[in-house]
Write a structure and sequence with these properties.
Elements (H helix, E strand, L loop, with lengths): L13 E5 L23 H18 L11 H12 L4 H10 L7 H15 L1 E2 L3 E12 L6 H11 L2 E5 L5 H13 L15 E14 L10 E6 L5 E18 L2 E7 L6 E6 L9 H8 L5 E10 L1 E8 L1 H9 L17 E14 L3 E14 L15 E6 L6 E7 L11
Parallel strand pairs: 3-4
Antiparallel strand pairs: 1-9, 2-3, 3-5, 5-13, 6-7, 7-8, 7-10, 8-9, 11-12, 12-13, 14-15
Length: 411
């Protein structure tokens, strides 16, 4: 039977590329009262945010669909946007991103340290991270906001004219370059009231520490999450693995290159419900694994995923940032709100290793300030005209001093 490239609608096993395990310093530890929780590191906050968001997305279709996100990319892009927020909007970012008592400004420093810790450029592992900002040339952006994005996030800051269709092309060219062609576009077009686009891109390539033997790859059925099955190319490797089994859920870790980066694969029972954030955190936690002989059978993957995150992020408490009540006064004097949070990922996996990319785009728009509703009560003398709209000819015109009477006829 012919092998089908695996772009199936559901993965039987929850899949995560563990690129967020490196820690990064957050705010200096206060010596608080005994009950106070320590501020999360940037990695801890991004991971938790990612699990909560992933659970929200999975819950929307009962866990039957393929969803592959980059918690790091989403957290980085939203933390950039948060630097321009103030008041309740800034507090909403803090809540949604799981920052706890860590100030949003200090979260930027944590992101900078995390990006530096994650970067790799070796023969077996490459991990590249890039940030950029395109701001409308007609808006006077706060110098402090732009400097924070340059200094903390290493963001390229450019001014553009969003009325020019070429602006979308420039953004897409940057995305394609930063993702090594895995994600060719972020936006098809941009609304005319676009004021800014913030973007984070992540590219990862890792070769297995021990490759799979292509000779052992065979066609095999895969039970699809939405029902039915597909014939896929199933790889196999018999070796000694880091393995964990608990409550019917199996998990295994496959390391890349010289170590430091790894893939965590989790297979829950077939009838398991969509996981919540705590379940996901437990599944992908590094604890509880032990070395054990076994065989891992894993399908080749060729996955793409894209979605607007507005609804899911609104459910996490960030709704104010997407409304006319948003306060982005640290960005500019203009009335701004987030129009969309676009997220795209691509992931391929074969006998040699894994290649993956993600991009998150935050589009900031200018609020259209609607005039206050009016009331016009014609309860005193008024004027009227009846005119032809095509020619402009006024057929009747007059002044009404008394709606029920007129001047007596002079005939």
């Amino acid at each position: 039977m012919k092998t089908r490239r695996l772009t199936f609608p559901a993965l039987g096993a929850a899949l995560a590329v563990a690129v967020l395990t490196a820690g990064a310093p957050g705010a200096p530890a206060q010596q608080p009262q005994a009950a106070a929780e320590p501020a999360p590191t940037a990695a801890e906050a991004a991971n938790r945010f990612g699990y909560v968001l992933l659970a929200e997305l999975l819950g929307r279709d009962g866990g039957a669909g393929t969803v592959v996100i980059s918690p790091y990319s989403l957290a980085a892009a939203l933390t950039m946007a948060a630097q321009g927020a103030e008041g309740d909007t800034r507090a909403a970012f803090s809540e949604a991103l799981g920052l706890g008592d860590l100030p949003v400004g200090e979260a930027a420093a944590g992101q900078a340290a995390l990006a530096e810790a994650l970067a790799r450029d070796g023969e077996d592992i490459v991990l590249a991270i890039a940030n950029a900002l395109w701001g409308d040339a007609g808006i006077d952006w706060r110098a402090g906001f732009l400097e924070t994005l340059r200094a903390r996030f290493g963001a390229e800051v450019r001014t553009v004219d969003f009325a020019d269709p070429a602006a979308a092309g420039a953004i897409n060219a940057w995305v394609e370059e930063q993702t090594r062609g895995m994600i060719p576009t972020l936006v098809d077009s941009l609304p005319p009231d676009t004021a800014m686009v913030l973007a984070n891109a992540v590219y990862f390539r890792g070769l297995w520490q021990t490759p799979f033997d292509p000779e052992r790859t065979e066609d095999a059925p895969f039970a699809l999450g939405g029902g039915g099955s597909a014939e896929v190319a199933m790889m196999a490797r018999t070796d000694r693995f880091r393995y964990r089994a608990s409550g019917g859920t199996q998990a295994v870790i496959l390391p890349y290159g010289e170590g430091g980066m790894e893939l965590v694969l989790v297979l829950p029972p077939a009838d398991a419900p969509a996981p919540d954030a705590d379940t996901l955190a437990g599944w992908f936690a590094p604890e509880g694994f032990g070395m054990r002989d076994g065989t891992v059978r894993l399908p080749r993957l060729d996955l793409t995923y894209e979605s607007s995150m507005i609804d899911a992020l609104g459910a996490l408490g960030l709704g104010v940032a997407f409304s006319g009540a948003a306060d982005f006064s640290r960005m500019a004097d203009a009335p701004l709100f987030i129009g969309d949070v676009l997220h795209k990922t691509a992931l391929t996996l074969d006998e040699e290793g894994t290649e993956a990319a993600a991009v998150t785009g935050v589009t900031v728009r200018v609020t259209s300030l609607a005039p206050e509703p009016f009331t016009l009560t014609l309860d005193r003398p008024f004027y009227l005209a009846i005119r032809d709209t095509a020619t402009g000819a006024v057929l009747f015109a007059g002044h009404v001093a008394d709606p029920g009477t007129g001047q007596p006829s002079t005939r």
